[in-house]
Amino acid sequence: MAGKCEICGKGPQFGHNRPFSLKATNRMWRPNVQKRLVNIEGETRRVNICTRCMRTLNKG
User: What is the average pLDDT across 36-52?
Assistant: First the structure.
């Protein structure tokens, strides 16, 4: 799956793992992005969309 949501632009974020020894190692948090068919302005398109945006589209 692609790493970026085409609706909201949410992408990976970076930070550190911090174990008990406080030795910082790099890590990444990736959004839950999935390929879905979405109806945008009357046109059905296949987009990479995060699950948060899917929930928001289902509300309306």
Answer: 94
